[in-house]
Amino acid sequence: MSRIINWFTYRWPFKPIIKWSLEEDIPGGDSFWYSFGATTLFVFVLQVVTGIWQLFYYVPTVDQAYQSVSYLRYQVPFGWLIHGLHYWGSNAFIVIVFIHLLRVFIWGAYKAPRQLTWLVGVLLFFLVLALSFTGALLPWDELGYWAAEVGTSIAGTFPVVGFFIKEFMRGGAAMSQMTLSRFFIGHVAILPGILAALIAFHVVAFRQFKSVGPWNEEKRKKIGYFWPQQILKDLIVVSILFVLMVCFSAFWPAQVSGPADALDNSIMPKPEWQFLFLYQFLKLFKGKWEPVGTTGVPLVLFLILFLLPFYDRNKKRSPLYRPVAMIGCFALIVWFLLFTILGYYSKPGASLTAKVSVSSQASASVKAGAQLFSSQGCIACHTVHGQGGNIGPNLSDIGSKGLSDQWLTTQLRDPKSHDPSTEMPAFKSLTDQQVKNLVDFLQSLGGSSSTNQSSPSSGSSSPAQSNMAKSSSEPNSVASAAGSPNEPSDSSQNQTTQTSSSISRGQTLFRSQGCIGCHTVDGKGGSVGPDLSNVGSKGLSKQWLMVQLKDPKKHDPSSIMPSFSSLSDQDIQALTTYLESLKGTSGQTTLSQSSQPSTQAKESSAATQSGVSPQQSQPTSEPNAASVESLPTGKAAYLVGNPPHGEKLYNNHCSQCHGKDGKGGVANPGSSAGKIPPLNPISKELFSKNPISFAENIDRYIQHGAVPKGPHPQKSMPAFGDNLKLTQQMMAEIEAYILKLNGVDRAAILHPGLAPYAFFAITVGGYAVAVFVILLLWSRLKNVIAGGEVPHKPQAAEYQTDSTGAESQAGSETSAARSEAKGQAPPSEDQPKDGIQRLRPSSVAFAIIVIIVITIIATAVMLVFSSFVTTKPIPSITTQRITSQEGHSGISTTNSGQSANNQQKENEE
Amino acid sequence: MSVSESGKSQHHCPCGGCNGNSPERRSFLKKTVGILSTPLFVFLAWPFVQSIVATIFRLPKATFEKVGSVGTFPDNEPVLPKYESKIDEAYLHGEKLRDVWVIKHSESKVTVFSPICPHLGCRFSWYPEAKKFICPCHGSVYSIEGKVLGGPAPRGLDTLPWKIENGQVYVKWERFRVGILQKIRIG
Q1: Are strands A383-384 and B168-172 parallel, antiparallel or unpaired?
Q2: Which end of chain B is more exposed for a tag (fewer CB within 10 A), N or C?
Q3: Torsion angle, CA of A522/A525/A528/A531, rounded to 10 degrees?
Q4: In terms of C-beta density within 10 A (0-12 exposed, 13-18 middle, 19 or more buried), how is residue A865 classed?
Q5: Coil vs helix vs strand at B157
Q6: How many helices (H) and strands (E) does chain B have?
Q7: Would you say the pTM of this structure is higher than 0.90?
Q8: Burial of B21 (0-12, 13-18, 19+ CB in 10 A)
């Protein structure tokens, strides 16, 4: 062994480099505090290794990045571990580099002559952040996509060069394949390359002046050694971190945020935790100050850190003599934590579907105001009772601020007269009545007693106000006219105008409230509910229509029509008036004239509505339940969706027919089943324990639609894919949600290699055994060391750092015999024998070798065990496509050895 | 140079025999090589920089693409239909779903807005009752004509070129630079 090393050293400075990297004396001795630098190095190596491993599967294309990551995570044995370690490694990287930075700051280790070490260290910290930013985009999922979209936009706000930086990062105007390619090459080549080079620079700079040690001069007198004492402590920290990361990978895998979809408006992303504080802090900068928040704040933070050794020239290192620096540091950390927590609990952006709820006891005016607050979009910018946006001030307690009604009216009509720099739009198109309602609503917002305050405020308003309140409680067309945005709500208007304005208002509501999503009028609209083109000539009473709007279940308990009781009475009135006006006279098409629309008519109307000509839609409306299986699945079946997001989309697009939570129960007259099939539980023929087969089975229906069996089914499944109603990504989300309803996890790990929990148990077990063995050896070794014994390791002599070691090496033969015989400390060793300080390097080296050997054995055992688990031939459901011949059974066993997924999943549980 | 070469350098040079290898001469050569090679490196860097920068600013060819039948759009009410758009971006040629805001005025006249907010590129929504477009990101508010009513937006909504043929609405997909007053096409 030594001959080989010598051979190498003759030709390459092998020994000197090892000597240089290991031999260092630490003033004040070794400490766990000093372990974070080495731990950072370990995480870097781990990230490089797991990163390269992921590249065996990952492809950086927008079409396949998401699937390739999913494949790695769910179908590659131990893919979950590789991905999990990389994911948690990236988080650990930031945390540990930060702790390291903080430690260096507290110890004052950035002061002369170590300024350059600090500068490079700060650069490394920001490089790590850049790596986490670029890495997040690579799976091309919702989270990473929107983070990159916002991140590059923020870079774009940088003065002068911002636009260029943004375009350069994106590789063009929009987020595209070019962006992914650029982020990819940055993440896997450029940034890690710079990082590695700077780490080398950092370590060399560190070795130049050695450890800084404690600030206390007394403590500095004790000298410790880097090898082996500090290395041992480093290894302890590193191994604990590694076990923790395995634990996180096993129990808290990276979140599934669904495939990226540029057309999905329902996403309101929040950044990753490390950028949350910036995100939250940015909200304080409005209007023209925005670039200050987006680029100024991060730049200032960077400069504060980067230039620290130049503006802090205080020579003292003890924190006690650096009160300003310590307080500043503490303030920064508090600021960071505060805004991170605020950001964590803040609602992202503005909720466009948010509604303000008011107590049922509130006056009609306040209710109408609340309605307007949502419908006029105030809620997009202002928060009330935790709902709404954060662009404008929170108005939850505006009523208790003592603002006059007049002031609020002016603020609504002409906000610039109060504050010329305001960004609030002037709501000039509102009627006086509407402004009154809004003012009343705002005045009612005063913390807990909002409902009590509402009545006096409405009482104190103008007579028109109380008229309004009265009239809206007993519905008539005057009230409905008042709600119309474009007509002045003058009570002196004649009956005809009121009716016509009521109709136009009703028409608007019919669209804005989404009635048109389900009902067709004049050939436009959805086919879920009955065609209403002719509803006015059916002799239905006004009362009946109003009840139908407010509580449809009263007429038909199985009705799936949602209750519109949240609408104001005027609105209900307006809708009713509008519906009564639909007598099939104006521009009626032949299809909508039939009061019992046939399937054929509905198909055509659905086709027209989606912009697809009847010829094109023919294949989609033709298939019945039996032939859908022969149609191809779409891309959605192979995208792993995010169930919570899928639930949102499901409620928007599916729940009207399939019921909330997929419970079904919706009548479908004319079909042989008589009801729309529930999705929870789903038909046995479509169900599969294998998430991919399951997704494929339902995907065909979602893509191509289906017409239920039966003579004249009133409702049929629309072709969401073929008609471009939903994107493939949206369908994937919905499928994931439907799978979840049926107890199948779309993101289940199909080929774990070894189940994550079992793997974690083995890791912990292996670690415990290793620690036990080391402790055992420790007590044994102590005697050996005490006797001055050095195990037969020739190179040990090279690293002896204390003089007694060299001495004992010389006389090792004799002392070994002596200690063997006595088993006791020789008299020459008069100091106490415990404590690492007394340990010989060689013995610790031996312990470390034992750790490594045990780890290797444990890994080998684990691998053998796992290969045994995965290759065990369990008859299982494959991920193959179901061909039409196989029909619904869909279970082919041609690939039986491959997927032990379900069985394993069951075993886990 | 030649004077110092013959004069001082003799005892400085360790090898003794090497004529004309004085420290002065070496440092002169260092500087000369450095000065001469810098423009060379700059020149060589040019293709490397250009290759990763130039493609960014290439404008893809925009063609009219069918969005839907004009009869399916409601009168004077913005809708956001999805349609299949050809992508012709660098080496990628294929199809991609896009959407645009369409407001139908008559059977032969529509207004088409890009769905991208001119402020910072978010996607805005239509509030039917308020008759306003509102962007949830920073609260820019636009009228149905696309005019800025409030918020930080520097210009009104971006209109896209359209045509109607045989009752079908065709739109040219274009992107514009966000955050500035001028409407500059970038994609």
Answers
A1: unpaired
A2: N
A3: -10
A4: middle
A5: coil
A6: 3, 11
A7: no
A8: middle
Question: Cα separation of A589 and A604, whole Å?
Answer: 11
C-alpha span between A810 and A804 (Å, rounded): 10
Interface of A with B in 205-234 (CB under 8 A): none
- The verdict on whether omega for the bond into residue A214 sits within 30 degrees of 0, i.e. cis, is no
CB atoms near residue B48 (< 10 Å): 9
**Interface mutation target, options A150, A346, A391, chain B, most CBs of B under 10 Å:** A391
Identify whether A827 is preceded by a cis peptide bond (ω within 30 of 0). Answer: no
Kindly provide the ipTM of the predicted complex, given to two decimals.
0.83
Q: What is the DSSP letter of A678?
A: P
Q: What is the mean pLDDT of each run of 10 residues along chain A (909 residues)?
A: 86 88 85 92 96 96 94 94 96 96 92 92 96 95 89 85 91 91 97 97 90 85 84 90 94 91 76 88 77 87 93 87 91 94 73 57 78 76 72 78 84 82 75 85 66 37 37 37 38 48 71 67 64 69 76 67 71 78 49 36 38 37 57 91 91 88 85 87 90 93 88 86 89 94 93 89 88 80 52 40 38 39 38 45 66 72 59 37 36 37 40
Contact flag B129-A389 (C-beta cutoff 8 Å): no
Strand partners, B64: B172
Cα–Cα nearest to B165, from B89, B110, B103 = B110
Whether A669 contacts A602, CB under 8 Å: no
Q: Measure CA A23 to chain center.
A: 45
- A431 to chain B, any CB pair closer than 8 A? The answer is no
- For an interface test with A, the pick among B59, B72, B140, B173 (most A C-beta atoms closer than 10 Å) comes out as B72
Residue with tokens 């940015």: A282
Write down the residue that tokens 């020579």 correspond to.
Answer: A315
Burial of A676 per CB tally in 10 Å (0-12, 13-18, 19+) = buried
Q: Return the structure tokens found at A564.
A: 């519109």
CA–CA distance, A54 with A49 (Å, rounded to integer): 9
User: In chain A, which residues have their Cβ closer than 8 Å to the Cβ of B110?
Assistant: none
Rg of chain B (C-alpha set):
31
Residue in chain A closest to B137 (alpha carbons) equals A349
Question: Is the separation of the CB atoms in B141 and B149 below 8 Å?
Answer: yes
Q: How many residues does chain B have?
A: 187
Query: Is there a contact between A737 and A646 (Cβ–Cβ < 8 Å)?
Result: yes
The DSSP 8-state label assigned to residue A676 in this structure reads P
What are the Cα distances from residue A547, in Å, to A139, A471, A551?
50, 19, 6
- Do the chains contact at B151 and A265, CB–CB below 8 Å? no
Among the listed residues A430, A413, A425, A549, the one whose alpha carbon sits nearest the alpha carbon of residue A484: A430
Q: Scan residues 30-49 of B and list those with Cβ closer than 8 Å to A.
A: none
In B88-107, the residues whose Cβ lies within 8 Å of chain A are: 89-90, 92, 97-99
**What 3-state class would DSSP assign to B96?**
strand
From A124's Cα to the closest Cα of chain B, the distance in A is 25
Give the best residue of A142, A170, A178 to mutate against chain B (max B CB count within 10 A): A178
Q: For residue A313, what are the CA distances in angstroms to A216, A306, A548, A746, B26? A: 19, 14, 78, 57, 39
The pLDDT tens digits for B24-58 are: 888 999 999 999 999 999 999 999 999 999 888 88
**Are A157 and B131 inside 8 Å of each other by CB?**
no
CA distance A839 to A620: 79
Q: Is the distance from CB of A732 to CB of A640 less than 8 angstroms? A: yes
Name chain B contacts of A380, Cβ cutoff 8 Å: 127, 134, 136, 139
At residue A353, the 3 state secondary structure works out as coil
The answer to whether A399 touches A387, Cβ cutoff 8 Å, is no
